[in-house]
Amino acid sequence: MGMSVPAHIAVDDAKVQQMLGSPELAWLVQRIRGRLERGEPVDGTVTLLGATPEQRRAAARLLRRSPGRGTALSVPLPAVAIELRRAAAAPSLVAAIEALGGPVRNLAAERAADLHRFGDALSLARSSWLSRLSWYRDWLDAVSRDGTTSRLIRQGHPGLLAQATAVLERLPKSDEPGSVLLSSLAAAATGDDKALTEGPLAGLVLHALAAREGVQIPASHDAEQALWSAAGVAADDLTSQVLVLNVRAGGEPVGRWLTEAADAGQPFRLTLRQLLAATVLPWALEIYVCSSAALVRGAADKLGAGCPALVCTEGEPSVACVRLLHAAASSGSAVHWHSDFSWAGLRGTATAVRRLKARPWLMAASDYEAALAGGADPLSGRPEPSPWDPRLADLMRVTGRAVSEHRTLPVLLAELAARAEPR
């Protein structure tokens, strides 16, 4: 005659642990929890293929039966529930599973709540004035399609999309010489001056900036910094600098420092902090932009104070560089732009043409053809157009070769010499 099952049973944690807590039965506990979390019935049988002898013996002890043979191990869940009640360990499978690993989640309810929060987050983001801009709409569509937003919500960050929108709304306008420190931007948008240093919020905003600039999502620290700079955001107002030669300007005291350096024909480094502290208005009617500091050095050596005003981006333009050039363009200076014959160089030149109304300087297809004779490197990266001379991008695509600016220094120096003022 079988033993009677008690009508009312409290959970006995020790007994539950003894019956189901062994490593050999972990798979069974996991299967039961999974069914409960998904809202599935626990009145069927679960099977483990490739069961070890230890797992078979553990199941046999639990169900008080022979271990049997073979590698497929089947366990009827109602029988497990009966054994738990018979041993006065737990009144149900749910109670036993929660005693072992905590409350059973309701995945369906969690999913419904996530969807509700997801909809709220997207609605709030779409109510921003930025929704008038195509890049912002593209970014929102991308982060909703690829699961970024729902993943952040599941990870306990339902407000990050709203914070990212708040950051984007506070960025300097692309056609204005605005600039802001990363810490100040973070504090204004989130109340935490370190919120954009790293982490999911920074990644979300950089994803949006990549859409705004039409570039790939950054995969390195340098690429991230280039995106921040393109948005007018500097990590540090002292490390963001611009190298110039003979850029005379008004405004005290920075304009006077620039003018004194120009009178001496010496290169000068200007920090973003200095540019933010005082209004600097360059006087030159023509300003030439290069990407290599070697050209600035050569121009200072050969042309001195007579060299035309020269601004060096030293690769991707810094926030300080962009701010100075915006000030020059807004005060009437014509900006002549030269860069590497690379896809990044074409992208930077096109951006300067669009934002500064810059004039490409020795950046035509014929200049590229002539530069190839001085040596070239393999062309890498995503192809970019050259709207000022479409044939240039076509030629570069065909040749597959890049020419860095330092290979063309003699030509550039000769061009500057032809425009030099006698001293």
What is the compact description of this entry?
The protein has 20 helices and 14 strands. With 423 residues, the chain is of the alpha/beta class.
Q: Your description of this structure?
A:
The protein has helices at 13-20, 26-37, 53-63, 77-86, 93-101, 107-126, 134-145, 148-154, 160-169, 182-190, 200-213, 221-230, 254-263, 272-277, 293-302, 319-330, 343-356, 365-372, 390-399, 409-418; strands at 45-48, 73-76, 180-181, 233-234, 241-245, 249-250, 268-271, 281-282, 286-290, 309-312, 334-337, 359-360, 377-378, 401-402. The protein is of the alpha/beta class. The chain has three domains: 13-105, no CATH class; 108-234, no CATH class; 241-418, Dna Topoisomerase Vi A Subunit, Chain: A, domain 2. The strands form five sheets. The chain has a six-stranded mixed β-sheet with strand order 7-5-10-9-11-12, sandwiched between helices. It has a two-stranded antiparallel sheet with strand order 1-2. A two-stranded parallel sheet has the order 3-4. The longest helix has 20 residues, at 107-126. The termini are far apart.
What's the Cα radius of gyration? 34 Å
How many domains is the backbone divided into?
A: 3
Into which percentage range does the β-strand content fall? 5-15%
Which stretches are low in confidence, meaning pLDDT under 50 for 5 or more residues running? Answer: none
Helix content: 40-55%
The average pLDDT score comes to: 88
Structural class: alpha/beta
